[in-house]
Structures are given as C-alpha cells and as structure tokens.
Amino acid sequence: MKTVAFFNNKGGVGKTTLVYHLGHIMAESGGSVLMVDLDPQSNLTSMCLGEDALERLWPAQGSHPHTLHGALEPMLRGIGDVGTPHVIDVGPNLSLLAGDLALGTSSLEDRLSNAWPRALDRDESAFRLLSALHRLIRAGGAQAGAALVLIDVGPNLGALNRAAMLAAEHIVTPLAPDLFSMQALRNLGPTLTEWREGWADRRSRAPAQGPALPAGAMAPAGYVVMQSGMRLNRPVKAYQRWVAKLPGEYHRAMLGASGAPATTDTDAHCLGVLRHYQSLMPLAQDARKPMFALKPADGAIGAHAGAVERCRADFTGLANQLLAAL
Ligand SMILES: Nc1ncnc2c1ncn2[C@@H]1O[C@H](COP(=O)(O)OP(=O)(O)OP(=O)(O)O)[C@@H](O)[C@H]1O
Ligand SMILES: [Mg+2]
C-alpha cells in the first residue's frame, strides 16, 4: 500500500480537486484507492457524498462515529487507543475516510502539538498520538484492500498536518504560478526537512512496547502546475514568467538542489499541468461526479463534451506520471 499526501501550505491550489479526480480515474482503471480527508473543512468528503449521507455523517448533536475524528475520539477522551476507522464506499474500487470539522475544533491540534516535544522524552502516549493518523490510515487501507492511499489536508503547517505528513510516504505539491505560491514553497521545503529529521530523532527514542510507527519518509514525488492562475485574467506573459521559475524554486526548496531543468516540460519532477476547466467544475459538483465523467444529461453538451474528453486525457496522463513517480 502506497501513501501519497497532496500538500501545500498555500490554499486553493487544487489539492482537493486533484485527490478527488485522481482517486476516481485510478479506481476506474482497476487499482483500489482509498481517499483520506484530513482537512477539517472536509471539502473532499462533501464532494464524495450526497446531502443525506452528509447529514448522517455529521449530525448536529452527539458524536460522529463514522468520521476520522470519531475514530480518534477514544484516544482524545483518554479512554483508549484509536478506534476502528469507518471506510465509506464511494464507488467501484474507491473508498473514503471521511473528514470532520471537529478535526480542527477539538483538542486534537493542541494534543499533537504537545506530543511533539514529549516524544523526545520517550513518552509512549506521545508516540500513540503522533502515530494515530498513520495507524488509522493503514487500518483503513487494509480494510479497503487499497493499493494506493491519497491524503488531502488543509493549507497550513500546523501539528495536524505534521502528523498527516508522517503518514505519507510521498508528497505531491500542487503549485500555482504566482508570487504567493512561490513564497509558500520556500516555507514548505525547509518545514518538511525539519519534520522528517525531527521525526527520525524521535523515532529512534520510541519505547519498544509502543505502537506501530510510520517511517516519516515524506519523499517529494513531484509537483503539479495549476493553470487556474490564468483564471484571474492575468496576462499570459506574467503566468509564463512564474511557470518558468517553478522548476528552479521546487528543486531548491524541496530537493535542496541548486540546479534544475530549464522548463516544466523537461523537468521529471513536474507531473503535469492541471488545466482550468472553467464551467466543467460547477457541472461536476452538481452532478457529484468527476469532470471527466460528465455526460450530456449532466449538461456536458456542445463545447463541454470536448472539454470532458480533454479532461479525461489530462487526468489519465497525470495519474500515469504520478504512479511512475512512486
Ligand atoms: N482544474 C480546475 N478547473 C476548474 N476549477 C478548479 C480546478 N481546480 C480547482 N478548481 C476550483 O478552484 C477552487 C480551489 O480548488 P481546491 O478546493 O481543489 O483547492 P485546495 O488546494 O484543496 O484548497 P484548500 O487549500 O482551501 O483546501 C475550488 O473551487 C475548485 O472547484
Ligand atoms: Mg482542499
């Protein structure tokens, strides 16, 4: 089972869109995929499930036993270890560990934050907390028979995301070609290095009788260029200028390398471009299916039909590039 997180501390760069669409296209071609929603905003979960299912998942009163937060609850309440994760069937070969707003509002972030220094003192309960997401994801993946796990997270460098990254063998970074994204990348690379090294140090101090621990590889698997930077009607030249900087910035920040291929086309770390599919996305959200699966009955007629086919080809290419990088 391979685990891949889609991570960038810059928001709105297409993390959730990528996890949703890559999950669906990879499942279509026969691989069993588990999607994991660790963003408290839970956009991925909302995209996957209908209104009724969401209301059952997140009742206004009481606990949410079928979300990831529900599975963490016995541990957070101090009455046990993590529970059994509830795997939700989303389609053939495709399943989901559901997100929950409570991942951001409960004591989880604080507990994970406190556990990080405590692990240096060989505190077993700290290792239980820090490895909880890893253990839930492994258990969910095994339950689903998944060959591949795609993890979606929120846009920040907090303790919840650090624990999520510990569970990821590989990291894909969606990047928008703009100044803000470039600055985010300059924080992301060193932060991942710090987390990787910090975890290696802690892991070497783990008590022998403790829980199964992740390796914490967080290996950079590559980046995806978000073409939707174009949607703001910025001049094409400005977009191209930023795209030209991406290979150098990615290699420097994520790989610690001084040299880089001159263009994204020649950069093996560039997994592809995520085009902006304009109104296909709202159509897909209404139909609650991926953009590339839209049919005339969903409103994909005329020029849309061609865009659907192009979208399918794009995501097929992206999925192949990603699988080759793992
Ligand atoms: N290729 C695309 N074509 C059209 N719309 C897109 C595309 N990619 C993303 N969007 C839209 O852009 C917005 C941001 O995308 P998305 O939610 O995937 O980003 P994110 O990185 O997950 O954001 P956040 O950091 O808030 O979790 C969404 O409204 C999404 O529907
Ligand atoms: Mg998102």
Ordered list of secondary-structure elements with their pairings:
Layout: E1 2-6, H1 15-28, E2 33-37, H2 43-48, H3 51-57, H4 68-76, E3 88-91, E4 94-97, H5 102-105, H6 108-118, H7 124-130, H8 132-144, E5 148-152, H9 159-166, E6 170-175, H10 179-203, E7 219-226, H11 236-255, E8 270-274, H12 280-287, H13 303-325
Parallel strand pairs: 1-5, 1-6, 2-4, 2-5, 6-7, 7-8
Antiparallel strand pairs: 3-4
Bound molecules: adenosine-5'-triphosphate and magnesium ion.
Residues 11-17, 39, 43, 154-155, 228, 274-277, 281 line the site of adenosine-5'-triphosphate (ATP).
What does this protein look like?
- The chain has 326 residues and is of the alpha/beta class.
- The protein has one domain: P-loop containing nucleotide triphosphate hydrolases (Rossmann fold).
- It is 48% helix and 13% strand.
- It is built from 13 helices and 8 strands.
- It has an 8-stranded mixed β-sheet with strand order 3-4-2-5-1-6-7-8, with helices on both faces.
- Helix 10 links the parallel strand 6 and strand 7.
- It is globular, with a radius of gyration of 20 Å.
- The mean pLDDT is 94.
- Magnesium ion binds next to helix 1.
Assign the structural class, choosing from mainly alpha, mainly beta, alpha/beta, alpha+beta, or little secondary structure. alpha/beta
The end-to-end distance, rounded to whole angstroms, is 11 Å
CATH level 4 superfamily: P-loop containing nucleotide triphosphate hydrolases
- List the ligand species: adenosine-5'-triphosphate, magnesium ion
Average of per-residue pLDDT values: 94
Q: How are the strands of the biggest sheet laid out side by side?
A: 3-4-2-5-1-6-7-8
Helices, by number, come to 13
What does the largest sheet look like? 8 strands, mixed
Domain unit count: 1
Query: Percent helix among the residues?
Result: 40-55%
User: What is the molecular shape?
Assistant: globular
Second-tier CATH architecture: 3-Layer(aba) Sandwich
CATH C-level class is: Alpha Beta
